[in-house]
Amino acid sequence: MILVPRQLRRSGMTGQVPYYGGRLTPAQIYSLQHPQEQVPPTLRHPPTTRSASMPPRAAEPDAVRQLRELRDQGVLTDDEFATFAARVSP
Questions:
Q1: Own/partner long-range contacts of 56-60 (Cβ < 8 Å, ≥24 apart)
Q2: SS3 assignment, position 87
């Protein structure tokens, strides 16, 4: 059983190198070089936001929800779904 990855078993590894299997970002490198300082905003990632947010769905009847599931499974076509949903929607 191997408990340590091969990269960490090399004789040249000192244990002072952070290893997590990926590349370091500029912000991580800066924070390693300057442990007491805040990372400048130019090195940080921009905040993540949703580009197109979906409007919240109004509470739909159970019948429409079940019809939608049948359409998603391929049992109903889009035309059939629209016809049946129009019958049960208020």
A1: 60/89
A2: helix
pTM: 0.35
In this prediction, residues 38-53 reach a mean pLDDT of 73
Q: Element (H or E) spanning 27, and its range?
A: helix 26-33
Q: Let me know the angle formed at the C-alpha of 50 by 49 and 52, rounded to the nearest 5 degrees.
A: 145
Tokens linked to 27: 């912000």
Quote the tokens at residue 56. 């919240």
Pairwise CA distance, residues 42 & 63, whole Å? 51
How far apart are alpha carbons 8 and 16 in whole angstroms? 11
